[in-house]
């Protein structure tokens, strides 16, 4: 099986919990689960990279990602498969739900990597998102504030889809 590295930024712990659950489902060891506040961008050990960030405020990246994103800009992602995931609040921030994924995507696009793990917007309640491209989210979005009852199911379906794409 391909080697997977998971990189996340988490302020409240929600995105970290999602990253850890994804790691369990994909059988990724704790050594390959990286908090971006402490991580480097040598992705050479991985075939597949998962980037996760919560969306803060009015569509902003999680604080640690604000610094890490510049490092990702300079990183070699050529030939890698990349999947995105994140957390957001689809009620209070309905018009910027999950926008952090689009910010990460804008950096990795054109770096020779393949984006996998897009998710249908069906079943989500929100008004607008920069992370919707051609009717799909750029990756998995979780709303533990308003739709926590759907979190486990969404992660399970997404990780099964990722396994097929890997």
TrEMBL record:
GO MF terms, alphabetically ordered: electron transfer activity; FMN binding
Superkingdom of the organism of origin: Bacteria
Membrane listed as a keyword: no
Protein name, as recorded: Flavodoxin
Organism of origin: Dysgonomonas mossii DSM 22836
SUPFAM superfamilies assigned: Flavoproteins (SSF52218)
PROSITE patterns, alphabetized: FLAVODOXIN, FLAVODOXIN_LIKE
The protein's required cofactors: FMN
Protein function: Low-potential electron donor to a number of redox enzymes.
Keyword set includes Flavoprotein: yes
Protein family (similarity comment): Belongs to the flavodoxin family.
Domain Flavodoxin-like per the UniProt entry, residue ranges: 4-163
Matching Gene3D superfamilies: 3.40.50.360
Record key words, sorted: Electron transport, Flavoprotein, FMN, Nitrogen fixation, Transport
